[in-house]
Design goal:
The chain is mainly α. A three-stranded antiparallel beta sheet has the order 1-3-2. It has eight helices and three strands. It has two domains: 82 residues, Winged helix-like DNA-binding domain superfamily/Winged helix DNA-binding domain (Arc Repressor Mutant, subunit A, Orthogonal Bundle), CATH 1.10.10; 85 residues. The longest helix has 31 residues. Strand 2 and strand 3 form a beta hairpin. This is PadR family transcriptional regulator. Pfam families: PadR.
Length: 181
């Protein structure tokens, strides 16, 4: 999937400005699904508008610049549904935290403890966010997705809490070996 499909997905849930679409896709509730960049959203919206998949209207408020508000068209909804029914790529998971854990023998144990504790706090915050989102969700597919995300973050949180000390104990072993030589 790409920025085009992501824009259609966001607009499928309701009209939005380009700024709102960008915010939702980069750091909001849609940021978990497709990697996209700030620079990809507006060109995608322009192409979608040119193709008749999205409509754009100017919304004017006194004393403020006009905002472009986008909405999905019936043709756009058909294109979105078609995109959802295509074969999908495998998930991409990238984690700087896991790179640090994989190379823990080169990391000072105190720093590793700090990194782990920050990760635990991050996961705790994500779980709180997802819990609040689940309570506000009235769409079955979105609710299922929130529960899935909660299960993934919960498993990661529990694993880190349970295995924190073991990772810290492995940390710095390469530095210790070099110092002994």
């Amino acid at each position: 999937m790409n920025a085009r499909t992501l824009c259609l997905a966001i607009l499928n849930f309701g009209e939005a400005t380009g700024y709102e679409i960008r915010k939702k896709s980069i750091e909001g509730e849609f940021s978990y699904f497709v990697d996209t960049s700030f620079g990809a959203i507006y060109p995608a919206l322009s192409r979608l508008t040119d193709e008749g998949l999205v409509e754009c209207r100017d919304e004017v408020h006194p004393g403020k610049p006009a905002r472009k508000v986008y909405s999905i068209t019936p043709k756009g909804r058909d294109a979105f549904v078609d995109a959802l029914n295509q074969p999908i790529e495998q998930d991409v998971f990238k984690s700087p935290f896991l790179l640090t854990a994989m190379c823990c023998e080169f990391v000072d144990p105190k720093h590793m403890a700090k990194v782990i504790d920050e990760r635990i706090e991050y996961l705790k915050n994500k779980l709180e966010f997802l819990s609040a989102a689940k309570s506000d969700c009235d769409m079955p597919g979105a609710a299922w997705t929130l529960h899935y995300g909660s299960a993934v973050f919960e498993a990661s949180y529990e694993y880190l809490v349970k295995n924190r000390d073991a990772l810290i104990a492995m940390s710095g072993s390469a530095q210790s070996a070099e110092a002994a030589e």
